[in-house]
Amino acid sequence: MDLSRAAAEHRDAADPLAAFRARFAGTDDDVLYLDGNSLGRMPRETPAALARVVEDEWARGLVGSWSSWIGTATRIGDLLAEGVLGARPGEVLVGDSTSVDLYKLLVAAADARPGRDVLVCCADDFPTDRYIVAGVAAARGMTVREVPADVDEGLDPAVLAAALDERVAVVVLSAVAYRSGALADVAAVTAAARDVGALVLWDLSHAAGAVPVDLAGNGADLAVGCTYKYLNGGPGAPAFLYVRAQLQEQLHQPIWGWFGQRDQFAMGPAYDPVPGIERFGVGTPPVLAMAAVEVGARLVAEAGVERLAAKGRALGELMVALADAWLVPHGVALASPRDPARRGSHVTLAHPRAWQLTQALVDRGVVPDFRTPDRVRLGPAPLYTRFVDVWDAMDRFRKVLATGVHEGYPTERARVT
């Protein structure tokens, strides 16, 4: 691979997604933003979309606008299903947070497997996922099997298979590991769980909009995910949940709200869940926030997940090659799978002074992310990150290491205290 800056510029000139960069705010400044897997940039169309809801639908339409708002959660859900998740219409709903959606689907799935007393999760998964699994298990008198995983390479399918038996009700896993970017085999894991009669609940937060997940094609049962990373829905944007159509009538989620009721405006005395995906709704949807989600989801659908994934792999390969050439001699090690086919759209590098390196990079116009214990996580977003951005960021990274300027930064412990 040609590692010159000129080669990176040439790849940008040939990039079929290059025009999308101009559709995001802040891309004309000098900041090299490599944290799109934590919070995506704001689409330039988002303020106008919010203004339409605020000034036209709310200010002028008032309560009459509910005639158009009432179906927003399913309408955007169908957009995500078709354009991002490889699901079918009527299988995705937008609303609540990722954590609340995970809780709803986990309890519903456990209830659908009576007589089974084990929940399985990954010991290196995102903390909230593990906490929710532990909380549900504690409330129901179930046992949690935390399957060990390599912090860099991810979960070994053979290790997971050994944890599956007829006692397992639900398996909760991330499609892309939050720390290393390791990519799980959704189809293989789903099939292994199905062989023992268990359901699988996927967290797609670091996958949606960056890698193809093909929920229908992979036979996935259940999934949740956030919309503020690669989907660019904004901070605190509502999440989405997916339930395979054949499972929807079998599952009864635990939070009974009027937006999941069969005839919500009858204000009836008893809860009777509506058929279909809407039974997983609870309360009044966040209309303003969902307007921003729709903008981001449409951009991803327009670009095409396959094209985004291909560019994400290429950006990652360039980053790994530059790290090998420039950073490894200074004690940096790759902390993600080396094979791009086994990696999502972010790359993680390990160094004993990762916290100080992260702060030194921020001060020099590069925005990465720090992850314990000693990781610098770099998340280029293929919708708006250029190859030359990766080159320049890695160039600044090597200069920080070469000069040792990061040594003057306080440790994380000093920052906390």
TrEMBL record:
Keywords: Hydrolase, Pyridine nucleotide biosynthesis, Pyridoxal phosphate. Its cofactor is pyridoxal 5'-phosphate. GO terms for cellular component: cytoplasm. This is Kynureninase. One of its GO terms (molecular function) is kynureninase activity. Pathway: Amino-acid degradation; L-kynurenine degradation; L-alanine and anthranilate from L-kynurenine: step 1/1; Cofactor biosynthesis; NAD(+) biosynthesis; quinolinate from L-kynurenine: step 2/3. Homodimer. It catalyses: 3-hydroxy-L-kynurenine + H2O = 3-hydroxyanthranilate + L-alanine + H(+); L-kynurenine + H2O = anthranilate + L-alanine + H(+). Pyridoxal 5'-phosphate binds at T98, S99, F126, P127, T128, D129, D203, H206, Y228, W258, T284. Belongs to the kynureninase family. The lineage of its organism: Bacteria, Bacillati, Actinomycetota, Actinomycetes, Geodermatophilales. GO terms for biological process: anthranilate metabolic process; L-kynurenine catabolic process; L-tryptophan catabolic process to kynurenine; NAD+ biosynthetic process; quinolinate biosynthetic process. The modification N6-(pyridoxal phosphate)lysine is found at K229. It comes from Geodermatophilus sabuli. Catalyzes the cleavage of L-kynurenine (L-Kyn) and L-3-hydroxykynurenine (L-3OHKyn) into anthranilic acid (AA) and 3-hydroxyanthranilic acid (3-OHAA), respectively. NCBIfam families: kynureninase (TIGR01814). Its EC number is 3.7.1.3.
